[in-house]
């Protein structure tokens, strides 16, 4: 998959089959659109193109909405789209100026003028352009004169899936990993660099890798303990991950740290990926470190049980 960082970088391709959207999460609803995009591309010997926007439009249009976090960094999104078989990913910088582009100008100047769209696939009730004025009906009217066809994923297909990026964000914010996994069609993941901690886990017999997540815009699930899969280099391990402020030792800042099972190597400075498989429990305060240590043994047992079906 080729990635372009603006329309000026893009060279029109033969028989372009296009879709457009933020695609935050690349969840099972998005995957329906991408499957149809791929089907049309294969039947017409065309090349598939996904148009997305960065930063997320909400950060530009509602800059005071500090609570809005993303399911993917751009790099994660690109990797997921590549796995869906997309040929070209065009990232358009979303600015206040761009937000004022009319739907008519977006169709004429971007979809047709810059990309050469021949077939456009959109989700049900897709809106675009200034004040979200553009619609499927407008695309149908403009398509024939401008040389492209448009197809909308039927409403019943969208309703049957019942998914949205917001619903997934809400689930993760409540620590509901199972719901998030269902709607994503895969485990939710975070990527980050291993940094030094205070070695409390090592003292308790459960050494942890402290994770500095790649982006402050990335949503981190609710405080708690989770069964996880951990990728270190080309190898994958089981693990249990903690998110919280460590109330037993009167911590004040949020820590993300994972105890990697059957692993004994220093990995400070390395990047690792963590997949959330199951929620073990919420974060809790314990009377002393010995009681915390006993609970961690139970947590590990629960994590191993949750990971029993995985090839590790």
Defining key terms:
312 residues; 11 helices; alpha/beta; 34% helix; 6-stranded antiparallel barrel; 6-stranded parallel sheet; Rossmann fold
What layout of secondary structure does this protein have?
Layout: E1 2-4, E2 16-20, H1 28-44, E3 47-54, H2 57-61, H3 74-83, E4 88-93, H4 96-99, H5 103-114, E5 117-122, H6 136-146, E6 149-152, H7 155-161, H8 165-173, H9 177-184, E7 188-195, H10 200-204, E8 209-213, E9 224-232, E10 235-244, E11 255-260, E12 271-282, H11 289-306
Parallel strand pairs: 1-4, 2-3, 2-5, 3-4, 5-6
Antiparallel strand pairs: 7-8, 7-12, 8-11, 9-10, 9-12, 10-11
Helix pairs in contact: 5-6, 8-9
Question: How would you concisely characterize the structure shown here?
Answer:
The protein has helices spanning 28-44, 57-61, 74-83, 96-99, 103-114, 136-146, 155-161, 165-173, 177-184, 200-204, 289-306, and strands at 2-4, 16-20, 47-54, 88-93, 117-122, 149-152, 188-195, 209-213, 224-232, 235-244, 255-260, 271-282. The chain is an alpha/beta fold and 312 residues long.
What does the model show?
This protein is an alpha/beta fold and 312 residues long. It has two domains: 2-163, Rossmann fold, CATH 3.40.50.620; 187-306, Beta Barrel (Elongation Factor Tu (Ef-tu), domain 3), CATH 2.40.30. The chain is 34% helix and 26% strand. The chain contains eleven helices and twelve strands. The strands form two sheets. Strands 1-4-3-2-5-6 form a six-stranded parallel β-sheet, sandwiched between helices. A six-stranded antiparallel β-barrel has the order 7-8-11-10-9-12. Strand 9 (224-232) and strand 10 (235-244) form a beta hairpin. The longest helix has 18 residues, at 289-306. It is elongated and about 75 Å long. 32% of the residues are buried.
